[in-house]
Write a structure and sequence with these properties.
alpha/beta
């Protein structure tokens, strides 16, 4: 079995089954759009924008019409130089977990063999980190850490979160859960230690 590709860019897919299929193919951060959910989720889009600005983003959606609607939405929301596009081929069939094929009868990302996904990521121009540097380890904060830091569950937690969000240039209305996701996606454990140290 081929070792996962260590790449600099984060990858965004439509859903959890796509994420699961890709997890053994690339060694990087993989996020979901929650299908069309990203259209109304400003926090999710803000996180994708921030990741794109820091490390670049590869979009890998299904090859059907819905996949292209999501892809085009991200294309319009993220600067061109920060976004790369990976495409899977049109293959007709049905994923094992589904009772019937999708509306257009095409296999999605979750139905593609690992080698097809690997080739798609490489063709998109992914920055492979073989000997050139370490892939960023995602942060490992937990909800309990946020509580201990006074960023949730405390009387002044909302004000503390608001101050941190301003400092990090993240959306002011981010919930504690969204903040946790953003911190773990954007910063390594070491960076988080420095960032959240008392007096910072």
């Amino acid at each position: 079995m081929t070792a996962p590709l260590r790449i600099r860019e984060a990858v965004v897919v439509e859903g959890r089954y796509d994420k699961s299929a890709l997890a053994g193919v690339v060694d990087t951060l993989i996020l979901e759009t929650a299908g069309f959910g990203v259209f109304k989720d400003g926090e999710r889009l803000a996180l994708l924008r921030r990741l794109a600005s820091i490390r670049g983003l590869i979009v890998l959606t299904d090859s059907d019409g819905a996949g292209f609607v999501i892809r085009n939405h991200l294309k319009g929301a993220i600067p061109k130089g920060q976004l790369k596009h990976a495409y899977i081929p049109d293959v007709y069939g049905k994923e094992r977990r589904k009772r019937a094929p999708g509306r257009e009868g095409k296999l999605g990302v979750e139905g593609m063999p690992p080698q097809v996904l690997r080739d798609a990521i490489l063709r998109a121009g992914a920055t492979v980190l073989d000997g050139e540097g370490e892939a960023r380890a995602p942060g490992d904060l937990t909800p309990a850490d946020l509580f201990a830091l006074g960023l949730s569950g405390a009387p002044d937690a909302a004000q503390r979160r608001a101050a941190l969000l301003r400092r990090l240039e993240l959306p002011e209305h981010m919930s504690a859960k969204a903040l946790l996701t953003a911190l773990n996606a954007l910063y390594t454990p070491e960076e988080l230690d420095r960032l959240l140290a008392p007096g910072r």
